[in-house]
Amino acid sequence: MILCRLADLSDPGARGPFIVTLAGERKQVFVVLTDGQVRAYVNSCPHVGAPLEMEENRYLDLTGSEIICAVHAARFDLLTGDCTWGPCRGRRLTPVAITIADGMIVADNPPNLS
Fold first, then answer.
1. In sequence order, what are the beta bridge partners of 37?
2. Do residues 59 and 70 lie in contact, with contact meaning Cβ atoms separated by under 8 Å?
3. Distance between CA 25 and CA 104 in Å, rounded?
4. In 3D, which of 82, 84, 33, 37 has the Cα closest to residue 59?
């Protein structure tokens, strides 16, 4: 499933949420671009399961250096999804496999294994 065009992201920047089906389940995901590298994550804080964004396409702190949870301000590394500060420290965001094809960021859709 196409999430967005790579050209739609600033560096650093983020976009989402996008609704995709992953392993047979509908999930919200978002994409992040930093230092020319793109990552995608499930839009769910590992602490309480709440969506991370403050509003559509707003996942990063003011400096663009970390993903920030709008619920309790937990902070996450852009490239690893590791929680670096907050109540979920030591946990991480759930990564989503993506590919970039013809300038589009595409979520890989694994088969339903259940």
1. 34
2. no
3. 22
4. 33
Cα gap 60→43, rounded to integer Å: 13
pLDDT in tens, 49-88: 999 998 999 999 999 999 999 998 999 999 999 999 999 9
Strand partners, 19: 28
Specify the residue for token string 């094809």. 101
On whether the pTM is more than 0.70, the answer is yes
Angular region, 70: left φ>0, alpha ψ -120 to 50, beta rest = alpha
Cα separation, 38 vs 99, in Å, equals 9
Place of tokens 């990063």: 60
